[in-house]
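Dear colleague,

Thank you for sharing your sequence with our group. We've completed the structure prediction you requested, and as agreed, I am returning the results in plain text so they can be pasted directly into your records. Please verify that the sequence below matches your submission; if there's any discrepancy, let me know and we will rerun it promptly.
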Amino acid sequence: MNGLTDDHTELYDTAIVRRYFDTFDRITGHLGRVAAELETDGSLSKLDARVIGAYIQRLGLTFQSLGYKYLMTGRIDGPLPGRLTFDRHESGFPIAQELLVMANDAMQADRHLAGLPSEAEIKDSMIRQIVGDLAIPTRLQFTLSQRLYYESLRSGAQFWARNDPDIQWLGESAGRRQWLVHWAVYDTQTNLPVIYLLNVEDSGKTHLPRDDRRWPQVQAHLMAQSFDGLKLITIAKGFDTDFDDLYPKRLRRIHLGPMYSSAFTLQSGPISDVLAHANAEPLQDWALVWTVEDLLAEREETVKTGWFSTSERQIFASSPFAGKTLADIGATAMERMLIMPERPYQALAERNPPGFAGVRKFVVGAGGRVLPQR
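Please find the predicted C-alpha coordinates below.
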Protein backbone atom coordinates (compact mmCIF):
# COMPACT_ATOMS: atom_id res chain seq x y z
CA MET A 1 0.00 0.00 0.00
CA ASN A 2 1.13 3.58 -0.59
CA GLY A 3 -0.88 5.07 2.26
CA LEU A 4 -3.14 7.29 0.11
CA THR A 5 -6.40 5.43 0.76
CA ASP A 6 -7.46 1.84 1.26
CA ASP A 7 -8.90 1.93 -2.26
CA HIS A 8 -5.46 2.55 -3.77
CA THR A 9 -2.92 -0.20 -4.21
CA GLU A 10 0.45 -0.71 -5.86
CA LEU A 11 1.43 -3.22 -8.51
CA TYR A 12 4.77 -4.75 -7.56
CA ASP A 13 5.13 -7.90 -9.67
CA THR A 14 6.56 -7.71 -13.20
CA ALA A 15 4.06 -10.13 -14.77
CA ILE A 16 1.08 -8.44 -13.09
CA VAL A 17 2.22 -4.97 -14.17
CA ARG A 18 2.60 -6.07 -17.78
CA ARG A 19 -0.77 -7.80 -17.77
CA TYR A 20 -2.36 -4.62 -16.39
CA PHE A 21 -0.95 -2.47 -19.17
CA ASP A 22 -1.66 -5.10 -21.84
CA THR A 23 -5.29 -5.15 -20.68
CA PHE A 24 -5.62 -1.38 -21.03
CA ASP A 25 -3.84 -1.48 -24.39
CA ARG A 26 -6.63 -3.73 -25.63
CA ILE A 27 -9.35 -1.69 -23.98
CA THR A 28 -8.25 1.64 -25.46
CA GLY A 29 -7.98 -0.02 -28.86
CA HIS A 30 -11.60 -1.16 -28.61
CA LEU A 31 -12.92 2.21 -27.39
CA GLY A 32 -12.15 3.84 -30.73
CA ARG A 33 -14.30 1.20 -32.41
CA VAL A 34 -17.12 1.90 -29.96
CA ALA A 35 -16.97 5.59 -30.93
CA ALA A 36 -17.19 4.55 -34.58
CA GLU A 37 -20.28 2.44 -33.83
CA LEU A 38 -21.90 5.38 -32.05
CA GLU A 39 -21.23 7.50 -35.12
CA THR A 40 -22.78 4.86 -37.38
CA ASP A 41 -26.01 4.73 -35.39
CA GLY A 42 -26.25 8.52 -35.17
CA SER A 43 -25.48 8.87 -31.45
CA LEU A 44 -22.40 10.91 -32.35
CA SER A 45 -21.68 13.21 -35.26
CA LYS A 46 -18.63 12.53 -37.39
CA LEU A 47 -16.77 15.39 -35.71
CA ASP A 48 -17.80 14.28 -32.20
CA ALA A 49 -16.58 10.75 -32.90
CA ARG A 50 -13.29 12.07 -34.29
CA VAL A 51 -12.73 14.30 -31.25
CA ILE A 52 -13.52 11.51 -28.79
CA GLY A 53 -11.37 9.09 -30.79
CA ALA A 54 -8.43 11.51 -30.53
CA TYR A 55 -8.75 11.65 -26.74
CA ILE A 56 -8.90 7.85 -26.62
CA GLN A 57 -5.69 7.66 -28.67
CA ARG A 58 -4.07 10.08 -26.24
CA LEU A 59 -5.22 7.91 -23.36
CA GLY A 60 -3.61 4.92 -25.06
CA LEU A 61 -0.32 6.84 -25.28
CA THR A 62 -0.56 7.63 -21.57
CA PHE A 63 -0.79 3.93 -20.76
CA GLN A 64 2.06 3.21 -23.18
CA SER A 65 4.29 5.76 -21.44
CA LEU A 66 3.44 4.46 -17.98
CA GLY A 67 4.09 0.95 -19.26
CA TYR A 68 7.66 1.97 -20.18
CA LYS A 69 8.14 3.70 -16.83
CA TYR A 70 7.13 0.63 -14.82
CA LEU A 71 8.41 -2.02 -17.22
CA MET A 72 11.02 -3.30 -14.76
CA THR A 73 8.84 -3.21 -11.64
CA GLY A 74 9.79 -6.09 -9.37
CA ARG A 75 13.11 -6.72 -11.07
CA ILE A 76 15.20 -3.87 -9.65
CA ASP A 77 16.12 -3.61 -5.97
CA GLY A 78 15.76 -0.28 -4.21
CA PRO A 79 13.38 2.64 -4.77
CA LEU A 80 13.55 2.50 -8.58
CA PRO A 81 11.61 2.20 -10.77
CA GLY A 82 8.86 2.60 -8.20
CA ARG A 83 5.43 1.02 -8.38
CA LEU A 84 2.28 1.98 -10.25
CA THR A 85 -0.51 3.03 -7.90
CA PHE A 86 -4.05 2.50 -9.14
CA ASP A 87 -7.57 2.81 -7.80
CA ARG A 88 -8.68 -0.76 -7.33
CA HIS A 89 -12.20 0.05 -6.13
CA GLU A 90 -13.71 3.12 -7.75
CA SER A 91 -12.12 3.17 -11.20
CA GLY A 92 -9.55 0.48 -12.01
CA PHE A 93 -7.42 3.26 -13.58
CA PRO A 94 -4.13 4.69 -12.29
CA ILE A 95 -4.61 7.36 -9.64
CA ALA A 96 -4.48 10.96 -10.86
CA GLN A 97 -1.16 11.52 -9.10
CA GLU A 98 0.47 9.20 -11.66
CA LEU A 99 -0.53 11.58 -14.45
CA LEU A 100 0.58 14.64 -12.50
CA VAL A 101 4.04 13.11 -12.00
CA MET A 102 4.13 12.13 -15.68
CA ALA A 103 3.40 15.74 -16.69
CA ASN A 104 6.28 16.91 -14.53
CA ASP A 105 8.54 14.28 -16.08
CA ALA A 106 7.54 15.47 -19.55
CA MET A 107 8.74 18.99 -18.72
CA GLN A 108 12.17 17.58 -17.87
CA ALA A 109 12.34 14.86 -20.53
CA ASP A 110 15.13 16.51 -22.56
CA ARG A 111 17.33 16.88 -19.49
CA HIS A 112 16.84 13.24 -18.53
CA LEU A 113 17.53 12.03 -22.07
CA ALA A 114 20.71 14.11 -22.25
CA GLY A 115 22.02 12.18 -19.27
CA LEU A 116 21.22 8.74 -20.71
CA PRO A 117 23.15 6.74 -23.32
CA SER A 118 21.47 6.32 -26.71
CA GLU A 119 19.25 3.32 -27.36
CA ALA A 120 21.92 1.83 -29.63
CA GLU A 121 24.60 2.26 -26.94
CA ILE A 122 22.41 0.63 -24.30
CA LYS A 123 21.62 -2.35 -26.52
CA ASP A 124 25.31 -2.75 -27.41
CA SER A 125 26.20 -2.82 -23.70
CA MET A 126 23.43 -5.35 -23.08
CA ILE A 127 24.78 -7.69 -25.74
CA ARG A 128 28.31 -7.41 -24.34
CA GLN A 129 27.06 -8.22 -20.83
CA ILE A 130 25.05 -11.20 -22.05
CA VAL A 131 27.87 -12.62 -24.17
CA GLY A 132 30.87 -11.57 -22.09
CA ASP A 133 29.56 -11.94 -18.54
CA LEU A 134 26.83 -14.53 -19.21
CA ALA A 135 24.52 -12.37 -17.11
CA ILE A 136 21.08 -10.90 -17.58
CA PRO A 137 21.55 -7.11 -18.05
CA THR A 138 18.76 -6.11 -15.68
CA ARG A 139 20.15 -2.68 -14.86
CA LEU A 140 20.66 -1.90 -18.54
CA GLN A 141 17.12 -3.07 -19.28
CA PHE A 142 15.90 -0.59 -16.69
CA THR A 143 17.98 2.18 -18.27
CA LEU A 144 16.47 1.37 -21.67
CA SER A 145 12.93 1.37 -20.25
CA GLN A 146 13.50 4.84 -18.79
CA ARG A 147 14.91 6.11 -22.08
CA LEU A 148 11.82 4.82 -23.88
CA TYR A 149 9.65 6.47 -21.23
CA TYR A 150 11.18 9.92 -21.63
CA GLU A 151 11.28 9.61 -25.42
CA SER A 152 7.57 8.85 -25.43
CA LEU A 153 6.88 11.96 -23.33
CA ARG A 154 8.62 14.26 -25.81
CA SER A 155 5.67 13.97 -28.20
CA GLY A 156 3.40 15.72 -25.69
CA ALA A 157 0.46 13.80 -27.18
CA GLN A 158 -0.56 11.96 -24.02
CA PHE A 159 -3.83 12.36 -22.14
CA TRP A 160 -2.79 14.65 -19.30
CA ALA A 161 -4.45 15.48 -16.00
CA ARG A 162 -5.61 18.68 -17.74
CA ASN A 163 -6.22 18.85 -21.48
CA ASP A 164 -7.09 22.48 -22.18
CA PRO A 165 -10.03 23.47 -24.39
CA ASP A 166 -9.70 23.36 -28.16
CA ILE A 167 -12.27 24.61 -30.66
CA GLN A 168 -13.70 23.45 -34.01
CA TRP A 169 -15.69 25.48 -36.52
CA LEU A 170 -19.18 24.13 -37.24
CA GLY A 171 -20.66 26.81 -39.49
CA GLU A 172 -22.97 29.79 -39.19
CA SER A 173 -26.71 30.06 -38.64
CA ALA A 174 -29.04 33.02 -38.11
CA GLY A 175 -26.11 35.41 -37.83
CA ARG A 176 -24.32 33.40 -35.16
CA ARG A 177 -21.13 31.43 -35.58
CA GLN A 178 -21.27 27.88 -34.26
CA TRP A 179 -18.40 26.11 -32.54
CA LEU A 180 -17.61 22.83 -30.86
CA VAL A 181 -15.42 23.44 -27.82
CA HIS A 182 -13.88 20.30 -26.34
CA TRP A 183 -11.57 19.56 -23.45
CA ALA A 184 -10.78 16.75 -21.03
CA VAL A 185 -9.53 16.11 -17.52
CA TYR A 186 -8.40 13.19 -15.44
CA ASP A 187 -10.73 13.65 -12.50
CA THR A 188 -8.83 13.64 -9.20
CA GLN A 189 -11.81 12.40 -7.18
CA THR A 190 -12.90 9.49 -9.37
CA ASN A 191 -9.52 8.76 -11.03
CA LEU A 192 -11.24 8.56 -14.40
CA PRO A 193 -10.70 10.28 -17.76
CA VAL A 194 -13.58 12.64 -18.52
CA ILE A 195 -14.25 14.32 -21.89
CA TYR A 196 -16.40 17.43 -22.35
CA LEU A 197 -18.09 18.55 -25.58
CA LEU A 198 -19.76 21.97 -25.70
CA ASN A 199 -21.76 23.23 -28.69
CA VAL A 200 -21.81 27.00 -28.48
CA GLU A 201 -23.16 29.83 -30.63
CA ASP A 202 -21.19 33.06 -30.90
CA SER A 203 -22.48 36.57 -31.69
CA GLY A 204 -19.26 38.38 -30.79
CA LYS A 205 -17.49 40.72 -33.20
CA THR A 206 -14.37 38.56 -33.42
CA HIS A 207 -14.25 34.83 -34.08
CA LEU A 208 -13.92 33.19 -30.69
CA PRO A 209 -10.57 31.38 -31.21
CA ARG A 210 -9.05 34.63 -32.53
CA ASP A 211 -10.40 36.77 -29.72
CA ASP A 212 -7.47 37.38 -27.37
CA ARG A 213 -9.85 38.60 -24.69
CA ARG A 214 -12.69 36.08 -24.70
CA TRP A 215 -10.94 32.85 -25.70
CA PRO A 216 -8.44 32.78 -22.79
CA GLN A 217 -11.31 33.60 -20.43
CA VAL A 218 -13.44 30.80 -21.89
CA GLN A 219 -10.59 28.31 -21.51
CA ALA A 220 -9.91 29.31 -17.91
CA HIS A 221 -13.61 29.29 -17.03
CA LEU A 222 -14.25 25.81 -18.43
CA MET A 223 -11.18 24.24 -16.83
CA ALA A 224 -12.13 25.74 -13.46
CA GLN A 225 -15.57 24.10 -13.72
CA SER A 226 -14.39 20.66 -14.84
CA PHE A 227 -15.15 18.68 -11.71
CA ASP A 228 -17.18 15.50 -11.70
CA GLY A 229 -19.05 16.70 -8.65
CA LEU A 230 -20.55 19.64 -10.58
CA LYS A 231 -23.77 18.99 -12.45
CA LEU A 232 -23.87 19.88 -16.13
CA ILE A 233 -26.65 22.36 -15.47
CA THR A 234 -24.35 24.22 -13.05
CA ILE A 235 -21.50 24.35 -15.57
CA ALA A 236 -23.74 25.43 -18.46
CA LYS A 237 -25.61 28.12 -16.50
CA GLY A 238 -22.37 29.55 -15.17
CA PHE A 239 -20.98 29.77 -18.69
CA ASP A 240 -24.22 31.28 -20.01
CA THR A 241 -24.17 33.97 -17.31
CA ASP A 242 -20.49 34.89 -17.62
CA PHE A 243 -20.41 35.31 -21.43
CA ASP A 244 -23.23 37.47 -22.82
CA ASP A 245 -22.36 36.83 -26.49
CA LEU A 246 -21.80 33.07 -26.18
CA TYR A 247 -24.74 30.69 -25.98
CA PRO A 248 -24.26 27.10 -24.74
CA LYS A 249 -26.64 24.93 -26.76
CA ARG A 250 -25.47 21.46 -25.78
CA LEU A 251 -23.04 20.19 -23.15
CA ARG A 252 -21.96 16.57 -22.91
CA ARG A 253 -19.74 14.86 -20.37
CA ILE A 254 -18.30 11.44 -21.20
CA HIS A 255 -16.85 9.25 -18.46
CA LEU A 256 -14.49 6.51 -19.69
CA GLY A 257 -14.66 4.00 -16.85
CA PRO A 258 -14.76 2.47 -14.33
CA MET A 259 -12.91 -0.62 -15.50
CA TYR A 260 -13.77 -3.82 -13.65
CA SER A 261 -11.60 -6.93 -13.60
CA SER A 262 -11.42 -9.92 -11.24
CA ALA A 263 -7.64 -9.80 -11.57
CA PHE A 264 -7.20 -6.17 -10.50
CA THR A 265 -10.26 -4.50 -8.98
CA LEU A 266 -12.51 -4.96 -5.97
CA GLN A 267 -16.16 -4.75 -6.91
CA SER A 268 -19.41 -5.79 -5.33
CA GLY A 269 -22.85 -6.57 -6.63
CA PRO A 270 -23.87 -8.06 -9.98
CA ILE A 271 -20.73 -7.12 -11.94
CA SER A 272 -18.60 -9.03 -9.43
CA ASP A 273 -20.75 -12.14 -9.84
CA VAL A 274 -20.68 -11.82 -13.64
CA LEU A 275 -16.88 -11.59 -13.86
CA ALA A 276 -16.41 -14.43 -11.37
CA HIS A 277 -18.87 -16.61 -13.28
CA ALA A 278 -17.20 -15.81 -16.60
CA ASN A 279 -13.82 -17.09 -15.36
CA ALA A 280 -12.28 -15.49 -18.45
CA GLU A 281 -8.68 -15.97 -19.50
CA PRO A 282 -6.12 -13.18 -19.05
CA LEU A 283 -6.74 -10.04 -21.13
CA GLN A 284 -10.40 -11.12 -21.53
CA ASP A 285 -11.37 -10.58 -17.89
CA TRP A 286 -12.70 -7.05 -17.89
CA ALA A 287 -15.71 -4.80 -18.38
CA LEU A 288 -15.64 -1.04 -18.91
CA VAL A 289 -18.44 1.43 -18.32
CA TRP A 290 -18.89 4.38 -20.72
CA THR A 291 -21.34 7.02 -19.43
CA VAL A 292 -22.67 10.01 -21.36
CA GLU A 293 -24.45 12.90 -19.65
CA ASP A 294 -26.23 15.24 -22.06
CA LEU A 295 -27.71 18.68 -21.45
CA LEU A 296 -29.70 20.45 -24.19
CA ALA A 297 -30.99 24.02 -24.44
CA GLU A 298 -34.59 24.00 -25.62
CA ARG A 299 -35.16 27.77 -25.96
CA GLU A 300 -33.87 31.23 -25.07
CA GLU A 301 -35.33 34.05 -23.04
CA THR A 302 -34.30 37.70 -22.85
CA VAL A 303 -33.14 38.99 -19.46
CA LYS A 304 -31.89 42.36 -18.26
CA THR A 305 -28.15 42.45 -17.59
CA GLY A 306 -27.89 46.16 -16.74
CA TRP A 307 -29.79 49.45 -16.71
CA PHE A 308 -29.99 49.61 -20.52
CA SER A 309 -28.81 46.19 -21.66
CA THR A 310 -30.29 42.74 -22.16
CA SER A 311 -28.95 39.35 -23.10
CA GLU A 312 -30.25 35.99 -24.18
CA ARG A 313 -30.19 33.21 -21.60
CA GLN A 314 -30.68 29.51 -22.25
CA ILE A 315 -33.55 27.47 -20.86
CA PHE A 316 -32.37 23.88 -20.64
CA ALA A 317 -34.55 20.87 -21.30
CA SER A 318 -35.54 18.80 -18.28
CA SER A 319 -34.90 15.11 -17.95
CA PRO A 320 -37.42 12.67 -19.39
CA PHE A 321 -36.55 9.99 -16.80
CA ALA A 322 -39.51 8.90 -14.74
CA GLY A 323 -39.21 10.06 -11.17
CA LYS A 324 -36.26 12.28 -12.02
CA THR A 325 -36.12 16.01 -12.54
CA LEU A 326 -33.48 18.24 -14.04
CA ALA A 327 -32.44 19.24 -10.55
CA ASP A 328 -31.89 15.60 -9.59
CA ILE A 329 -29.37 14.65 -12.29
CA GLY A 330 -28.50 18.05 -13.73
CA ALA A 331 -28.84 16.82 -17.31
CA THR A 332 -31.43 16.28 -20.00
CA ALA A 333 -30.42 12.66 -20.48
CA MET A 334 -27.91 10.12 -19.28
CA GLU A 335 -26.90 6.86 -20.94
CA ARG A 336 -24.64 4.11 -19.63
CA MET A 337 -22.90 1.65 -21.89
CA LEU A 338 -20.90 -1.46 -21.08
CA ILE A 339 -18.01 -2.73 -23.19
CA MET A 340 -16.79 -6.27 -22.51
CA PRO A 341 -15.28 -9.34 -24.24
CA GLU A 342 -17.47 -12.28 -25.29
CA ARG A 343 -16.92 -14.48 -22.23
CA PRO A 344 -18.02 -11.89 -19.65
CA TYR A 345 -20.93 -10.91 -21.91
CA GLN A 346 -22.09 -14.55 -22.08
CA ALA A 347 -21.98 -14.70 -18.28
CA LEU A 348 -23.97 -11.48 -18.10
CA ALA A 349 -26.60 -12.84 -20.50
CA GLU A 350 -26.87 -16.12 -18.60
CA ARG A 351 -27.23 -14.56 -15.17
CA ASN A 352 -29.32 -11.59 -16.39
CA PRO A 353 -28.92 -9.56 -13.19
CA PRO A 354 -31.37 -6.73 -12.48
CA GLY A 355 -30.34 -3.23 -13.49
CA PHE A 356 -28.59 -4.15 -16.75
CA ALA A 357 -31.60 -4.30 -19.07
CA GLY A 358 -31.39 -0.60 -19.93
CA VAL A 359 -27.61 -0.56 -20.27
CA ARG A 360 -26.38 -0.51 -23.85
CA LYS A 361 -23.79 -3.20 -24.46
CA PHE A 362 -20.86 -3.57 -26.87
CA VAL A 363 -19.22 -6.96 -27.15
CA VAL A 364 -15.64 -7.39 -28.31
CA GLY A 365 -15.65 -10.37 -30.63
CA ALA A 366 -13.11 -12.26 -32.70
CA GLY A 367 -10.48 -10.11 -34.35
CA GLY A 368 -11.33 -7.16 -32.13
CA ARG A 369 -14.70 -6.52 -33.77
CA VAL A 370 -17.10 -4.51 -31.62
CA LEU A 371 -20.66 -5.78 -31.85
CA PRO A 372 -23.50 -3.66 -30.41
CA GLN A 373 -26.06 -5.54 -28.32
CA ARG A 374 -29.20 -4.62 -26.44
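Summary note from our side: The chain has two domains: 8-153, 162-373.

Kind regards,
the structure core
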